Amino acid sequence: MACRICSGRLRPFADFGRQPLSDAFVVPGDPGEEFFFRLAVGVCESCSMVQLLEEVPRERMFHAGYPYLSSGSSVMREHFGSLAKRLLATELSGPDPFVVELGCNDGAMLSVVADAGVRHLGVEPSGGVADLAAARGVRVRKDFFEAATAAAVLAEDGPADVVYAANTLCHIPYLDSIMAGVDTLLKPGGVFVFEDPYLGDIVERASFDQIYDEHFYFFAAASVRAMARRHGFELVDVERLPVHGGEVRYTLARRGARTPAPAVAELLAAEEAAALSEPATLRRFAARVAHNRDRLVTLLTSLREQGARVYGYGATAKSATVLNYCGIGPGLVPLVTDTTPAKQGRLTPGSHIPVRGPEAFADPYPDYALLLAWNHAEEIMAKETGFGRAGGTWILYVPEVHLV
Ligand code: SAM
Ligand code: TMP
Ligand code: ZN
Questions:
Q1: Which ranges in 158-193 belong to alpha helices (H)?
Q2: pTM for this prediction
Q3: Ligand nearest to the CA of 194
């Protein structure tokens, strides 16, 4: 098996077996066959990039019915709003600035840029969420970003000061075409800023549910720096972010254009000290994951034997890996609640648990709630105080199975 970045040899370290598409929520009674693929991860022996071994065709994941909404969390709306304001005050403060966002989704970030009257473009292949962004005044091109798209955008709009992507770059196996596109589109002194789940946090917290079809790469400073250099770019800044269970925001600039911030060398040194991308470290991660799965299944099985009712909270894409890898179906968890309209009334992929709106959670409250959206724990627990008052208990499985 060859690395998608450098063709080096991939060393597999975790295998979750046959898994469905994480965002393919099933219409009840629909006889259509679900698509399954082999979900397994490996690390490149040459460039240290951690990646999936099997690639799902992009049109199967990102299409008009793609359900995920960036604005579904108030914390994330706030997060993107403050990033937009920071970019407007720094990189976008020159004459007639222009920013392009890859995977702008429903416009959580770009709507703030649009409101400020600054030139922008969202490149978003999923038609439904792109329409939501457009309805908020965001200029959107319904397309996959790649080298050809960048050339078309350059011809129409001219070069960009900033290309930005959140939780999107790690979804794209064809990074060579993306980097060629960024090179085409960026002004000589421009920056490519992207933020994605951080391998360091995933390994530290054993958050194996970050591994699913859409998350093709698991970035670290070392692997991103190597990838950037292949395309004439340098990693010039890194910033750790608390959102989505731990992310890093990477800033790339053309080689020699900017002096790297001290944070880059610091994070590289920390990764080195932790032997983050060493096969032994990653194998230990895989062993913890298998242990946590056994603990979770044992807990849910004993709760069922006691007659306790357990609902899932948040039909996240991540939950597809947890539910299917642990073999959790409607027998253990009869319902998952979620605020996303396009998920409600459907069944979770592969595990076929009915998804209902938030009102179903309180009608009446279950005894336990399996927090599948654990990355939004603070926001959700602050909102669901009635559950605690009714005697309810949260079940978390990151970094290990525990009750709150
Ligand atoms: N940026 C938003 C956020 O952080 O909440 C959305 C993240 S969502 C998990 C990933 C988005 O990337 C989807 O809306 C998907 O349609 C989009 N996407 C996938 N491949 C893409 C590509 N090649 N170019 C641009 N967007 C892409
Ligand atoms: P994410 O972890 O990929 O951001 O997905 C979060 C999912 O959880 C998404 O489907 C929306 C759902 N959700 C709720 O149901 N209630 C909430 O309060 C929050 C923040 C998210
Ligand atoms: Zn490689």
A1: 175-185
A2: 0.97
A3: 1
Q: For residues 126 and 128, what is the distance between their CA atoms, to the nearest angstrom?
A: 6
The verdict on the CB of residue 172 being under 6 Å from ligand 1 is yes
Per-residue model confidence as pLDDT tens digits over 180-227? 999 999 999 999 999 999 999 999 999 999 999 999 999 999 999 999
Measuring from atom 12 of ligand 1, which residue has the nearest CA? 103
Residue 156: alpha-carbon gap to chain centroid: 30
Question: In one letter, which amino acid is 81?
Answer: G
Structural contact between residues 161 and 91, judged by C-beta atoms closer than 8 angstroms:
yes
Q: What do you get for the CA distance between the two ends of the chain, in Å? A: 42
Structure tokens at 352: 């076929």
Looking at every residue in the chain, the average pLDDT score rounds to 98
Ligand with smallest separation from the Cα of 226: 3
Q: β-strand 10-20 against 36-44: which pairing, if any?
A: antiparallel
Ligand 1 pocket, residue 171 CB under 6 Å = yes
pLDDT category of residue 1 using cuts at 50, 70 and 90 = confident
Q: Is the CB of 182 under 6 A from ligand 1?
A: no
pLDDT tens across 319-347, in order?
Answer: 999 999 999 999 999 999 999 999 999 99
Token pair for 51: 């990646």
- Tally Cβ neighbours within 10 Å of residue 41: 23
Q: Which tokens sit at 132?
A: 């939501």
Q: Rg of the Cα trace of the chain? A: 21
Residue 243: CB within 6 Å of ligand 1? no
- Ligand 2 atom closest to residue 337's alpha carbon, by position in its atom list: 15
Mutation pick for ligand 2 pocket among 339, 355, 359, 374 (CB with most ligand atoms within 8 Å): 339
On the question of pLDDT at 260 being above 90, the answer is yes
- The predicted structure's pLDDT at residue 60: 98
